[in-house]
Amino acid sequence: MKRNHLTTRLCLTLCLSVGLLAFYGTSARGSEPLEKASISFRVAPSVWSDDARFEQMLDMFERHPGATDEITFFTQTTHAPISDEELERRCEILQKRIAQVHERGLRSGINVLCTLGHHPEDMSQVIGPEYPRAQTIDGVVAQATLCVNNDIFRDRIRRIYGAVARTGADYVWIDDDVRTGHWLDSVGNSGSFCFCDACMALLSEKFGKATTREELKEKLGDPLTLTVIRQFASDSYDKMFALIEEVVHEVDPKIALGFMTGERYDEGYDFTRWAKTLEGPDGDKEVYWRPGGGFYDQYWMAGLFDKTQQIGRQIALLPPEVKVIQSEIENFPYQPLKKSAAITTLEAVSHIGAGCTGAAFNVLTMNEEPLDEYERFMTAIAKRRPFMDVAVQKLGRAPNVGVLPLWNKNDGNYTNRTPVQTLTAGIMETGIPVAFDYTQPADVLLLSRNYLDHLRPEDAKELFKKGVYLDNDALGLANDPGTYALNDLTGMEYGGVITVDGIEKFTSHPLNGRFGGRTRDLRQSFWRDPIFALHLTRPGVEILSSCVNYEGETQAEAIVGIFENPLGGRVCVNGYYPWSNFYNYPKQAQIRAIMRWLSKDRLPGYVESFGQIHLSLRKPDENGRFAGIAINANYDAEENVAIRLKTEKDAITVYDYDCEKRAVSATDVDDAGYKLFVIPEIKAWEAALIVVE
Ligand SMILES: [Zn+2]
Questions:
Q1: What per-residue confidence (pLDDT) applies to 250?
Q2: What pLDDT is recorded for position 412?
Q3: 303 alpha carbon to ligand 1 midpoint, in Å?
Q4: d(CA 441, CA 21)
């Protein structure tokens, strides 16, 4: 059932209004060109604390010009906060290291790994018990995570960030321990935002009455309570960021401050606010951002793109003046064969496609060993550096455009993070570009029940003036007579469930092109996902797929349907594995055709030929110039990669992965103005840069 909560709804309404304003205004985002990618290497104490190894690293970078622009020093390897004295001692060494890096012509800075502390490790070195620890709602004390809301902690911030700022650093990074969800203890129980006595007193003020942990725990499922806690978390971190900004810029106003994020909603997802705070009261200080996520090995390659999509969402709401956005590329625990140099490099390129302007490689050793085995990473990155530089030049900070998987930063927690990711991942695999910024207008919306669940009826209705792709679950809620009752706009309703032997059969509808009559069998006897038949409730619904059994008998006339509703919106309901398994040509082609139809031919472009090409595209400027990246996410090279683009230009420029540039002329233009450009080849796990100018 729909959550009946005023605050959440008000928040979403506000966000929707912002979106509409953005629709009518013009965005200045991405207007300033960037010269090149910003590449950094993060190095651990095992490298910087040893004179010989440190010199070896500098020599290696000299042999591979372009592999990095910056050397960023981790204050520590382990994740429990160390004492202020020890950190000051390390800063004395790092001051010398930074000078040595500067002598080699590179920039240098410090990454404070533990501001609050991530989790218990090497507890013999942990900061003293006089520093208040974070506590869970049950009162369990986190062994290695500090509470932010006390004067002892604030004194620590002044002391350690002051020491870090005095090293001559060009920039200072705050790591992603500034978050909820750290680990409580050595067995990995998860922590939360702090509910210590001091925090409870502050929270009580927010609630307007004295509240105990026990009372609060009872109400944790209540959206209003969660909203207040999330706001409190955001406020607490914001206050800390303001203090860090003050302390660091008091030492040197030229130091850029960077913050690392993950796709986490519990702490408020207030990236815009925090970026503004780090820019200082006058808004003139440079801020860096490092969006991250977990992709530590190459065993499951879809994980790379999952991370790219998370990163796209982390960047989407950042203010345009944040120019240095280095994706976190991490190969923890840094065994060089766990993620190849080629994939490590491609990962950076993929994230650049989603909005990053560089990368921070955290791939070198944390062990006591020489660096020889790690040189492969420097070689690979230096080789692809020209491609990354041109990509960042051409893509800039222009927002990603395409279909929009609906999400909202105020509408998230760990339980409903999965749907937006699910919505995004499968569709991207078909070569349909995806947008991340939900405040910008989009012609096609991918809708989950979880998203719809939070909307006011009038806002839900607004969605259906656009192109909407949804599954049976969301359809059920959209039609629910007690909530939205949008049957007039959806044209379809639940028409029964098929639990065994259901095979999708493509109809001879024009959107299926030459694939009418083909089948797609996802073997329900193995995966057991239900298939949902559609009951057509309004005239004008057209059927793209029906369902048959192994004898060819029809199980359901309609399992994929499309409908143009009286408001001019277009709808596609997919009842057969709606978000995944688009790996055969008929389905890939159908999904592409559906997305284009839903957009009323306003989709900016898409891949037309068969192959697993991930395509990202950016918003065109006022002269119709835009760029994008195509990545071949398969182990087969693809020849003649055909891409349809909505452009008036007759030729585009394509840079291959070696940054060789060639002009590609359109070989076809269709009635809607989509031109066809054919890239001769994209090799396996390589990228091409597409530039329209
Ligand atoms: Zn606290």
A1: 98
A2: 57
A3: 34
A4: 10
User: How many angstroms separate the alpha carbon of residue 236 from the centre of ligand 1?
Assistant: 9
Of 497, 496, 441, 492, residue with least CA distance to 469: 492
Task: Give dist(CA 327, CA 37) in Å, integer.
Answer: 11
Q: Check if the beta carbon of residue 84 is closer than 8 Å to that of residue 53.
A: no
Q: Are strands 324-330 and 358-362 parallel, antiparallel or unpaired?
A: parallel
The CA distance from 434 to 454, in Å, is 22
- The residue behind tokens 């069998």 is 521
Q: Return the structure tokens found at 589.
A: 């082609």
User: What pLDDT score does 32 carry?
Assistant: 64
- The DSSP element (H or E) to which 111 belongs, if any, is strand 107-112
SS (H, E, C) 482-511: CCCCCHHHHCEEEEEEECCCCEEEECCCHH
Domains of the chain: 34-127+148-182+230-395 (3.20.20.80), 400-442+444-598 (3.40.50.880), 613-692 (2.60.40.1180)
The β-bridge partners of 638 are: 682
Query: Does residue 443 contact residue 600 with C-beta atoms inside 8 Å?
Result: yes
- Report the separation in Å between the CA atom of 9 and the middle of ligand 1, taken as the mean of its atom positions: 29
> Cis link prior to 333 (omega < 30° from 0)?
yes
Which helix or strand (DSSP H or E) is residue 198 part of? helix 197-207
**Centre of ligand 1 from the C-alpha of residue 178, in Å:** 13
121 phi, psi to nearest 5 deg: -160, 145
Which residue, 595, 655, 242, is CA-closest to 432?
595
- pLDDT < 50: residue spans in the chain: 1-30, 414-415, 417
Three-class DSSP category at 123: helix
- State the amino acid at position 693 in one-letter form: E
CA of 202 to the centre of ligand 1 (A): 9
Question: Residue 554: which H helix or E strand, with range?
Answer: strand 554-564
Pair 6, 408: CB distance under 8 Å? no
In whole angstroms, give the CA distance from residue 70 to residue 395.
Answer: 22
Beta strand pairing call for 605-607 and 638-646: antiparallel
Instruction: Please give the angle made by the CA atoms of 652, 656 and 657, to the nearest 5 degrees.
Output: 145
pLDDT value of position 193: 87
How far is Cα 182 from Cα 629, in angstroms, rounded to an integer? 35
Region of residue 283 (left: phi > 0; alpha: psi -120 to 50; beta: else):
left
**Measured in angstroms, how far is the CA atom of residue 149 from the centroid of ligand 1?**
5
What is the reported pLDDT for 27? Answer: 36
As a whole number of angstroms, the distance between CA 74 and CA 86 comes to: 14
* CA–CA separation, 270 and 237 (whole Å): 10
Give ion ligand 1 contacts, CB < 5 A. 147, 149, 194, 196, 199
Report pLDDT for 265. Answer: 77
Q: In angstroms, how far apart are the furthest CA atoms of the chain?
A: 77
Both tokens of residue 259?
Answer: 């913050």
Look up residue 292 and give its two tokens: 């991250």
> Which whole-number Å values give the CA distances from 317 to 400, 409, 420, 597, in the listed order?
12, 9, 16, 28
**Measured in angstroms, how far is the CA atom of residue 146 from the centroid of ligand 1?**
8
pLDDT at 15: 38
Contact 529, 577 (CB under 8 A): yes
Q: φ and ψ at 598, to 5 degrees?
A: -60, -35
